[in-house]
Structures are given as structure tokens and as C-alpha cells.
Design brief:
By secondary structure, the protein is of the alpha/beta class. It has helices spanning about 10-20, 40-50, 65-85, 120-125, 140-150, 155-160, 175-185, 210-220, 220-230, 245-250, 295-310, 325-330, 360-370, 380-395, 410-420, 425-430, 430-440; strands at about 25-30, 55-60, 90-95, 100, 105-110, 130-135, 165-170, 195-200, 260-265, 275-280, 285-290, 315-320, 335, 375. It folds into two domains: about 10-230, Rossmann fold, CATH 3.40.50; about 245-440, Nucleotidyltransferase, domain 5 (2-Layer Sandwich), CATH 3.30.420.240. Helices cover about 40% and strands about 15% of the residues. An eight-stranded mixed sheet has the order 3-4-5-2-6-7-1-8, with helices on both faces. It is elongated and about 80 Å long.
Length: about 450
């Protein structure tokens, strides 16, 4: 039997096919928009290998098994039809969800939903697979991807001299795909064993007539940027509290007035590697200091030096008091910020506000301030600027579908998405504490 994967002029698919047979490349992310031929590509590569290499094992994984049945299996049959593969060459086990081919190769359909009993997805790490494909990778937790990847290269790869390969197809998403694939590829720093291929609807010469016009009519502005134009910088998550364009504006809002001086500091604590300190003039963040791997005494010394340089009263300094930050508060005798403490009363009405904790309350206040173009950040360092943008994009409402107190995403969730702690965003957020405290105190009596 001879099978041919006809890309019909889709050069991006051809590029992935070349990477699929490159012995150096082990990890490929493909996509960036709707209609770029992602599913057809994945089905062709996985089943092409399964048909060529006898008794090998593969997986196709999506967040929900029902989505594989509804959307991926039809693409599998489309590929089979184009190749002339009839049911004589395969069978499908609907109970255990796998295709068994005539040569004893198997392709498993795996659901990657979150299970409270297995939050790190260790159930995938013990599998023995030859290669695999994650479809709609933008929906995946990084732990799920990592453990699926750990199963690859463990079944007859040595027999056929096959490099273990993970293919991920996706739309733009602000998860690990953005951090580990899109950004490094854009900057030219992606490792040689990992590749990112950007694909757009215009790359797919087999799109049905009227498909693009329908997308233009039905998608929102943000959805068009992401799903039609492949813009990875946009995020259409309805839980996002800050508009993306307003986040970008903070670096050019030079009209924001100067004012009283403040210092806010997020201190390195267990498992983290840096302290971030900000000096403010009103709502102008005029200086950012990043100190790698420092002691409590070193952080306190740096804040003290900035206090003297910028003439900031100790009552206008606040430090994250969680973890070892409490030691800095003790040394300086400044204000301490406790994330899970009770929210403050509204400075105007003097009434309690419906927030889960102080951190959530201050992030909501910060989001409002940024959306109203009320903050300016002076920053010439492109890496720090990127970090600030990425971290502020993760200021999102947590449990937005639940009728409960308002809260933002937990830090552990943000760390999972970013691969680091949101140090810069936390430092910026603490500036709002003075608005609540001072306005409330000054209005008394």
C-alpha cells in the first residue's frame, strides 16, 4: 500500500512534515488561527506513522473525549477516505477508545480533563507511546502536556530509529504555548529541538467557499485578532479584568500627573528568585528595581536606599508581608501587605466591599485604574515590559460563574500559566492600598 499526504499547496503543513522526519526535532506546535488545516495535519501524521510502522502506539488527546468523537474522528475518516483506507484496514474499540490497524498499531483517543484525584495528570506518565498529538492545546494545563509528552518515545522507537515526537495544534492562547513556543520563536531563542509554525487561514487552499467571510461577520474584534489573523497578543477571555490595549497604554500614558511619592515592594520568598521594588510619583511608576536572589537584609537595604534617594516617608512604603517579606517589614517598620487579609472598607461610602480578600480588592481597583488610563509606567527594559504585560493579562476574575465574593485568579494558577510568579503585577497592585487607606483615614473626623 502507498499513501500520499497531499497538502494541496499548504506550505506550512509541508514545513511540519519535514520537521516530523527531522531526527533533531521532538516538539512541534502548529497553528495560530481557525481554518489552517490543523486537524487534517494531525490525523495525517499520526495515522501515517501508525500505518508505516508495525505494532507501534500513538495517542490523540483533547480536553474532552466527546470533542474527539464529535470533531476529531470525522477528520480521521476524511483522511482515510482520501487515502483509500477502508474498514478492512482498521477497527475501532468504542469501549476503550482506540483504533487498531491491520498491522497491530494502535492510536488511543485520550481525554485530558482535570481530575481532583490526579491534579498533576500522572496517569499519563506511565503510558508507553511512540508518538502523540495534542489537539486544541490552548485548552490544556501544562502538567497534562508534560505527562503526555513523558509517555512518548517509549514504544519501539529504537526498533524503527524513530525520534519521539509531540505535535500540538492550537489557536493563540496565553498559556505555556505563548511562553514556550510563540515568544521564543518570535525572539529567535527557541531551542533547536522545539519548533513553532504559525499558520493562517490563507495557508489552507482547501477552505470551503465563504468560510473566511463568515468568520469576518460572526467573530468579535478580539476573536478576529486571535482566530482569523493569528494575533497571539490578544486575549478574549471574558474573565479578564483589564483590556489588553489599556495594558499597552500604561507605557505611553505620559500625561498622568506626578504626585506624592510611594514605594511598593514584592519580596522574594521561598522558591522564588527575585525581589521587585517600585518607586511612585502619584500614579507614575518612575523606577523599577529588580534584585535577584537576595537576603531579607539586602532587600531592606535596597528599599532604604530608594527611600532616601526619592524622599519617601516610611508611612508611604508598603511591602508584601507574606513569607519572608515579614522580615523586611520588621526591619524597616513600614506597612505590610497581607494578601489574604480582609478587604478594606470603601473609601467613599465607608461600607464593606464584597471581595474574597485584600489582594482581590486591590487588583479590582488596579484594573479600574488601568482601564481608565490612570497609570503610567516608565520602563525601557523590553524584558521587564513583556513581563508586566503578561502578568497584567492574567488579572482575571476567579469563579466568575459562581454567586460568591469577587476574587482574582490564585497565584498558583498564574504561576502555572506564566511559569513564574507575577512579581511585577503584585508590586504594581499594592499601590492601590494607599488610595484606600489614605482616603479612608483622611476623611475621619
Amino acid at each position: 500500500m502507498q499513501i500520499t499526504f497531499d497538502t494541496n499547496g499548504n506550505d506550512k503543513q509541508k514545513e511540519v512534515c519535514k520537521l516530523w522526519v527531522d531526527p533533531v526535532v521532538a516538539d512541534i506546535a502548529y497553528g495560530g488561527s481557525k481554518g489552517s488545516g490543523k486537524s487534517y495535519l494531525g490525523c495525517s501524521l499520526i495515522f501515517g506513522d501508525a500505518l508505516m510502522y508495525e505494532a507501534t502506539n500513538y495517542f490523540i488527546s483533547r480536553k474532552k473525549l466527546n470533542d474527539i468523537r464529535k470533531f476529531t474522528i470525522p477528520s480521521i475518516h476524511e483522511v482515510f477516505n482520501h487515502w483509500g483506507i477502508t474498514s478492512n484496514y482498521y477497527s475501532f474499540n468504542g469501549q476503550d477508545n482506540y483504533f487498531k490497524l491491520y498491522n497491530d498499531s494502535r492510536v488511543y483517543l485520550l481525554e485530558a480533563k482535570y481530575l481532583p484525584s490526579d491534579p498533576q495528570y500522572y496517569r499519563f506518565g506511565s503510558m508507553q507511546m511512540t508518538r502523540g498529538w495534542i489537539e486544541e492545546a490552548g485548552e490544556f494545563e501544562e502538567a497534562a502536556k508534560n505527562n503526555l509528552n513523558a509517555s512518548i518515545g517509549r514504544w519501539k522507537n529504537d526498533v524503527y530509529n524513530l525520534t519521539g515526537k509531540l505535535l500540538q495544534t492550537c489557536n493563540p492562547s496565553k498559556n505555556y504555548l505563548y511562553r514556550d513556543y510563540y515568544l521564543p520563536s518570535k525572539k529567535g531563542t527557541i531551542p533547536e529541538w522545539r519548533k513553532f509554525i504559525q499558520a493562517l487561514p490563507s495557508d489552507n487552499k482547501k477552505l470551503p467557499k465563504g468560510y473566511l467571510e463568515n468568520l469576518q461577520r460572526t467573530l468579535t474584534v478580539n476573536e478576529k485578532e486571535r482566530l482569523l489573523y493569528g494575533n497571539w497578543e490578544y486575549d478574549d477571555d471574558p474573565a479578564a479584568l483589564i483590556e489588553y490595549i489599556r495594558i499597552l497604554d500604561i507605557f505611553s500614558n505620559s500625561f498622568v500627573n506626578e504626585g506624592e511619592r510611594f514605594i511598593t515592594a514584592d519580596i522574594a520568598r521561598f522558591g522564588r528568585d527575585k525581589t521587585v521594588i517600585g518607586v511612585w510619583s502619584g500614579f507614575r511608576l518612575i523606577k523599577i528595581v529588580t534584585i535577584p536572589k537576595n537576603k531579607v537584609t539586602e532587600a531592606a537595604k535596597a528599599i532604604k536606599e530608594l527611600q532616601e534617594q526619592y524622599f519617601v516617608p516610611m508611612s508611604n512604603i508598603i511591602v508584601d508581608e507574606d513569607g519572608v517579606g515579614g522580615g523586611v517589614v520588621d526591619i524597616l517598620e513600614c506597612n505590610g501587605f497581607v494578601n489574604n487579609s480582609s478587604p478594606l472598607d470603601n473609601p467613599e461610602t465607608k461600607e464593606p466591599e464584597n471581595y474574597r480578600n485584600l489582594k482581590s480588592q486591590m487588583y479590582y481597583a488596579l484594573a479600574k485604574k488601568i482601564n481608565e488610563a490612570g497609570i503610567f509606567v516608565a520602563c525601557d527594559d523590553s524584558e521587564i515590559k513583556d513581563c508586566i504585560i503578561q502578568e497584567l493579562e492574567q488579572v482575571k476574575q476567579h469563579d466568575m460563574d459562581k454567586d460568591t465574593t469577587k476574587a482574582v485568579l490564585p497565584k498558583e494558577k498564574i504561576k502555572e500559566l506564566l511559569g513564574r510568579s507575577p512579581d511585577y503585577a503584585d508590586m504594581i497592585m499594592m499601590r492601590m492600598w494607599f488610595e484606600y487607606r489614605f482616603k479612608f483615614e483622611f476623611s475621619i473626623g
